[in-house]
Target: FAD-dependent oxidoreductase
Amino acid sequence: MTVQRAGSRGRVAVVGSGISGLAAALRLELTGHQVELIEAEETLGGRFGVARLGDRPVMTGGKNIGRRYSAFRAFTAELGVDAYESFGYNASRIKDGKVLTLDSERRGQTLKNIRAMGSTRDVARMAAMAARIRMDDTNRFLGSRYFTRLSRRHDRAPLSSYFGRQMTEMLVRPMVIRNNGAEPDEVYPGTFGTNLAMLMDHYDQLGGGIQPALDAMAKRVTVRLGTRVEGLVIRGGRVTGLTVSEHGAPAEELGYDGVVLATPAYATAKIVGSERPSLGRRLADVRYFPATVVLVEYDRPMFTREVRALAMDDGPCSNAGSYGMEERHIVRYTYSGRGGRLTDLSPANIDALTSRTEEVLRTHLGAPRAERVATLVKHWDAAYSGYLPLHADFLAEVRGAVSALPGLELAGDYIQGVCIEACCRSGNAAAARLASYVAGAR
Ligand SMILES: Cc1cc2nc3c(=O)[nH]c(=O)nc-3n(C[C@H](O)[C@H](O)[C@H](O)COP(=O)(O)OP(=O)(O)OC[C@H]3O[C@@H](n4cnc5c(N)ncnc54)[C@H](O)[C@@H]3O)c2cc1C
Model:
């Protein structure tokens, strides 16, 4: 499907074409490796979730790009794609019938609204974490020194015990549902820095979506779509290849100088499990939570420029937001969190759920009675990682097991965090380590 480049520094495989794998593949290609990007699905992009709503290409997964996403922005710039347009961080809550908006462009009002959401102790705790994040960039990602220390003190109980009830319900819950698809009693204080950092950024979107970057990527490396990796080939204590099944055919062995597994933890667990069962079991501990995204195009805007998203507590729909700053006639309904783990995806149920949320938007935001023009439903069984208690200790264990297996590197959402920037950084780091191993081994 693509032009194959003659890499002189060795032949490597990157498994998984989400942002973790794309970043690893591009970094390895730039350092002169011949790269094969192996993807089980028939399209590139993983949880970017590229799809079509009527005639237009859309993204059903990750699409908001923070101003501080420097690694991801460097990745798209390298591919000649940099049509970013402002989106902001905009999320409203309803408290005592009043709409409270958190907006990255209106920081003063946002701070006032946060103060109205919790006790003095909770606001002070939140402020202390925010100060650490501002002071030291590593606190935006999993495994930082500050949050590791915090995890050792507080991860025996979930996040819902760390903050008081009001702060948990008003601010913490929408944040962890949005970023992890989890409830505050399903995640831990030691990983909360990744959530708070998301609130402290300002967001853009790629005007033309991620597809132009995926197309550019497919010209840079060899892409194998519809190819599922089933296991590692280990010879002489080193990873020397993969067993793969292409389009359901019997598994065959492919040889490589090195491999990056840029797959979610549960998928990585399956690939490494037969050769390294204890590593496989440990990776399988990482929890993932589901989500369903319903995109609806209307015949008129449903939101205003000032209020572009509403987080909700009491329904299966956790968040309704406009697709873009100017595309307020397309609404993205996200069903996540305990009440939003949908099992009935029938058109009748989706229609009923959408009607119910439209009513909420009309009641609280004065949204119009608009006609639906097109609807798209995307369900993710494992949409977001929710990490583990004492996650930094888990990461150290995994790192130890992987460093005993030369030729293998791991990337993915459970290593630095679920946001696109964290995944991108995990891919870059894995690629750098693999490049140095391949150089030494040749
Ligand atoms: C609905 C939703 C909205 C989000 N919104 C945002 C947002 O606005 N901003 C943000 O920063 N983040 C957002 N995120 C998070 C972010 O999009 C994801 O965490 C990130 O895209 C994950 O990338 P990844 O490469 O680690 O994993 P994936 O994108 O899941 O890629 C892994 C790939 O590996 C493939 N694979 C798995 N097993 C195998 C195998 N055995 N063989 C071959 N291939 C295999 C899969 O098919 C998949 O394509 C969102 C996530 C979701 C689900």
About this structure: The chain is about 35% helix and 25% strand. The longest strand covers residues 372-387. The chain has three domains: 11-48+69-83+208-286+389-441, 89-201, 287-385. Residues 15-21, 38-41, 46-48, 61-64, 228-229, 262-264, 267, 271, 291, 293, 380, 383-384, 412-413, 418-420, 423 surround flavin-adenine dinucleotide (CB under 6 Å).
